[in-house]
Design brief:
With 465 residues, this protein is of the alpha/beta class. It is built from 18 helices and six strands. Strand 4, helix 17 (397-400) and strand 5 form a beta-alpha-beta unit. The longest helix is centred in the N-terminal third of the chain and has 28 residues, at 121-148.
């Protein structure tokens, strides 16, 4: 088989290979940048080949012009926003861009279902499924963006909400089956109602989910977007979309499972439980203990003369944009002969790998960053553990209190360090709304204040030692 078709298929195969290589290299912080470049090259190849497809040449000048204009506008907006966005706002951008992918798949489905292409059988069924999944991913990701951006400050919950979600899903599915049964000849009203209900389902599913579950939600919607793209690729007979969507869907599914396992909670519990609160001020602590503040000068002396210090960053560090000051503090300690290591929980922050991205931006070497399994055994030998903005992932109630929503979740064993220093802005419970028993332990001291400002104070005081 020769001609343009063979060349296009070969180019799509090369694109798929580049995507797979890029995704593989993204799995390590050391090679992530090159992985993005490889995947980017694959996307450029796929775009150029698609633009040169013979079918596009039949569209006419004006349609082709508007296609290129749309690419220019979208690409320009992505370039500008990507350059300007703060590293601490990356979770919001990931949620937003992932939603755009789902929305694009849903838009393709809408065109295919509303047009007269004559789809039937499997192609029509996959167009419907892609429409549902893409629409849910689109609207759900936008709600996730709103939560991460704190435009939506509290989970929205009301009685029988799960039954509402189930009803929305059932009606949407029935409308989809009706569209398939009509062989692509369903009325415009039914198709519009189908997509409106799918969009409403994404909103209704995501509104009650607390901020502590956002890493899992983002991974899940990433998987759904990939799946929707793969389905629509089959409908369009586009090999690049099928392969790329399948790869993204599979990677997102695996990542979602890893995130859920890191919290020791099934996906159903994330989607349908009420874990995650508002972070309002806490009342009397369940443990009966009290929070014990410490003067920054005493904390500086403790760390300056320690043998080993383990730094545990969390979302609070991202909010305070304290990663550069934290690394400056660590460099001072290392220069004094202190062994410094970073401990990263899989779900620390608001997206998978959030803390790794922030630390890489600050220039922290990869070889002193450890995940939970690698670092947990070292806490008992640490003279001090410095917690900056982490909450649930260091809460010992996950081990000791069967009534706690996080019971059974693997945590960083911060409480086993000889001394625990916690930088915290106030006395509230944090974003999840769960009391942290770590804060009232005998070996824990609180350093109240903004993360960046407190790190700066510690730096100044260590320099005086």
């Amino acid at each position: 088989m020769g001609g343009p078709g063979a060349f296009i298929n070969l180019a799509y195969f090369a694109t798929a290979a580049l995507f797979i290589v890029g995704l593989k290299r993204m799995s390590s912080p050391k090679t992530a940048k090159s992985g993005i470049l490889w995947a980017g090259i694959g996307m450029v190849v796929a775009t150029l080949v698609t633009l040169g497809h013979p079918q596009l040449g039949e569209m006419g000048f004006f349609k082709y012009f508007f296609l290129l204009l749309a690419i220019a506008i979208g690409g320009g907006a992505a370039w500008i926003s990507g350059k300007r966005v703060a590293m601490t706002d990356m979770p919001q951008m990931i949620a937003l861009y992932n939603g755009m992918g789902g929305g694009a798949a849903g838009a393709i489905a809408a065109v295919e279902l509303g047009g007269k292409e004559g789809h039937a059988g499997i192609a029509l069924a996959l167009a419907v499924l892609g429409g549902i999944i893409g629409s849910v991913s689109f609207s759900g990701s936008l709600i996730a963006f709103g939560k991460l951006q704190e435009l939506i400050k509290k989970p929205v919950r009301f009685p029988n909400q799960h039954w509402l979600n189930l009803g929305l899903f059932a009606i949407t599915l029935l409308l989809g089956l009706h569209i398939v049964s009509q062989g692509g000849e369903a009325s415009g009203f039914v198709i519009v109602l189908f997509f409106l209900l799918a969009l409403a389902l994404g909103v209704s599913m995501t509104l009650p989910i607390g901020g502590a579950d956002m890493p899992v939600v983002i991974s899940l919607y990433n998987a759904l977007t990939g799946l929707a793209v793969a389905f629509e690729g089959y409908v369009l007979n586009n090999a690049a979309m099928i392969i790329a969507g399948t790869v993204v869907g599979a990677a997102g599914t695996l990542l979602t499972q890893l995130m859920a396992r890191a919290m020791n909670r099934p996906i159903s519990n994330v989607l349908f439980s009420n874990f995650g609160g508002t972070g309002e001020a806490a009342g009397p602590t369940e443990s009966g203990g009290s929070l014990k503040p410490m003067d920054p000068s005493d904390a500086a002396v403790l760390m300056a003369y320690a043998n080993k210090v383990i730094i545990v960053p969390g979302y609070g560090m991202a909010v305070a944009q304290a990663q550069h000051k934290v690394w400056e503090l660590c460099q001072l300690l290392i220069a004094r002969g202190v062994t410094v290591k970073f401990a990263i929980h899989p779900v620390a922050g608001r997206m998978p790998g959030h803390m790794n991205v922030l630390l890489a931006e600050a220039g922290v070497p990869y070889d002193i960053i450890y995940d939970l399994e690698e670092i947990n055994s070292e806490f008992p030998s640490a003279d001090a553990a410095l917690v900056i903005g982490a909450n649930d992932v260091v809460n010992p109630m996950a081990r000791t209190n069967p009534e706690s929503p996080i019971y059974g979740m693997p945590i960083l064993n911060v409480d086993q360090a000889k001394n625990v220093l916690v930088i915290k802005r106030g006395k509230g419970t944090g974003f999840s709304g769960i009391e942290n028993a770590l804060f009232t332990l005998d070996n824990t001291r609180m350093l109240y204040g903004d993360g960046q400002e407190m790190a700066a104070q510690l730096i100044a005081m260590i320099k005086e030692q």
